[in-house]
Design a protein that fits this description.
Elements (H helix, E strand, L loop, with lengths): L1 E2 L11 H7 L4 H6 L3 E5 L13 H18 L5 E8 L3 E8 L30 H11 L4 E5 L5 E8 L12 E2 L6
Parallel strand pairs: 2-3
Antiparallel strand pairs: 1-7, 3-4, 4-6, 5-6
Helix pairs in contact: 3-4
This protein binds adenosine-5'-triphosphate and magnesium ion.
The site of adenosine-5'-triphosphate (ATP) has 20 residues, from helix 3 and helix 4.
């Protein structure tokens, strides 16, 4: 199944309301005995960047659900939003098992998963994050060390690209293996 999407930018929204609109809420973290903190205090409210609220909520939701899925009980997950001169930066950090160095270049690939033992999910979440962030003219990346948690960052630039056209289709079915 193929899905094409167009960006629907809206003017302003605080990071907090963007986080609230994501389906993952603090009680879900509590249920898994994870500490979850949000810090968007560095952002101006309202912030001066137009973006597609639903799609960015989807990016946050994918990153936070990964953090929740991979972090063991009593661990920590945090979401921080930073304001730079030319962009907003979101940072999702967890205290989970981290990602091996050799695997880092692959995590944003379609259908890529680190292990075969847990087939929870399809390996699509990060690919979708990258597609959405890049459609906004932003960048997404990860820093991690095995055993030391993972930090995912993405930016949304101030100023709008000339066109929102040309967003790649996202394929949802796993290819024949
Ligand atoms: N926070 C994290 N800590 C450790 N490994 C991670 C983390 N986030 C992603 N990964 C690794 O990257 C892989 C790809 O993540 P991605 O979100 O694309 O897929 P998924 O979570 O396995 O499935 P889906 O998102 O489709 O439900 C994961 O399977 C996991 O191996
Ligand atoms: Mg995922």
């Amino acid at each position: 199944m193929l899905e094409r999407f167009a960006l629907c930018r809206r003017d302003t929204m605080s990071a907090h309301s963007c986080v609230r609109s994501a389906p993952l809420t603090p009680p879900l973290f509590e249920a898994r005995r994870l500490s979850f903190t949000v810090d968007a205090s560095a952002l101006p409210v309202p912030w001066p960047i137009a973006f597609d609220h639903d799609r960015i909520a989807q990016v946050l939701s994918n990153l936070l659900s990964n953090a929740m899925k991979f972090t063991q009980a009593n661990g920590t997950v945090s979401l921080r939003a930073n304001w730079h001169a030319d962009c907003v930066e979101f940072v999702v950090r967890d205290s989970g098992p981290g990602i091996a160095k050799h695997a880092l270049p692959h995590v944003f690939e379609r259908f890529w998963q680190a292990g075969t033992e847990s087939r929870d999910g399809l390996g699509l979440g990060l690919y979708i994050c990258k597609t959405i962030v890049e459609a906004h003219g932003g960048r997404i990346g990860v820093e991690s060390e095995r055993g030391n948690g993972a930090t995912f960052r993405f930016t949304l630039p101030a100023g709008q690209p000339e066109s929102d056209a040309g967003v790649e289709p996202v394929e949802h079915s796993r290819p024949e293996q």
